[in-house]
Write the C-alpha cells for this entry.
Amino acid sequence: MDFSKRIAIFAGAFGSGKTELALNYAHRAAAKGRRVALADLDIVSPYFRSRDTAAELTAQGIEVIAPLGELAQADLPVISPRVRAALADPELIVVLDVGGDDAGATALGQFSDQLKSLPHALLLVVNTCRPFTRDADGIANMVHTIERATHLTVTGLVANPNLGAETTAEIIRVGLARVEEAARNLNLPVAALAVRADLAAQVGELTVPLFPLQIFLLPPWLQTQVVTRDRRAAMAAQEKRQNPK
C-alpha cells in the first residue's frame, strides 16, 4: 500500500471491508512515527464502524474524529467540524473512512473542493464476494457511483475478496483477477490486495502489493474465546458465560 499521500480515503459498499482497511492503514501510519487522525464519515451503517475502536486507536496515539456523546452511535448524517481542520494540517496524516455506496459517499462530497487542492488517494475497496461488485461491470458501476457522489476521482482499487471465516486462497485469487480486469478497463491501478494476515502466506506470487490485515472489528458471535466456526455454538457459549445460572 502506498503511504506517500498525506490523505487516504477508503470508500466501498457495505461488506467491502473498507473500515478494516482504514483501521489497518491508520495503525501502520502511526507505527511509522507519523501523527495520524482517522475520521469516521460512515453515516450509513451503525455496524462495524471505525469509531467503535476509538479506545484502541487513541492508545496508539491516533486521533479519532467522529460524533461524540449520544451521537456516537447514531445512524445520522452528523459530521464533525474537526474534519476540515485536520485536512488542512500539513503535518497530519488523515485517514477517511467513508460510508458505502452513493448515500454514504455524499458525506465526503462536502469536502471535495478542499480535497482537490490537497494530496490525496481515493481508494475503492472491492469485495468480489458481495453483491454489486462481483464482476468488472459491477465494479465499474461502483466507481462511477462513488465519483458522482463525492465529486472526486477514484485513484485506485483495493482488492479485498473474502467470505469472512470461510475465505480460501482460491477465493482470493479469483477475486483479485476480477478486480484486475476492472482496473484494466478503468485504467486504474490495483493499489493492494488485502488479505487476512493468517492467509497471507497462501496467496502465492502477486503482481500487486500485499496488505495483510489485522482484524479489528468482529461480529458479536465471534467475540468469544470458543474456537468454532459454528455461529450458533459461539453465541450459545457466550450466553452461558453471561448467564451461568
User: Anything to note?
Assistant: The chain is about 35% helix and 20% strand. The helical segments are 18-31, 54-59, 82-88, 101-109, 112-116, 136-150, 169-186, 231-242. The radius of gyration is 18 Å. Confidence is low (pLDDT under 50) at residues 69-74, 220-232, 237-242.
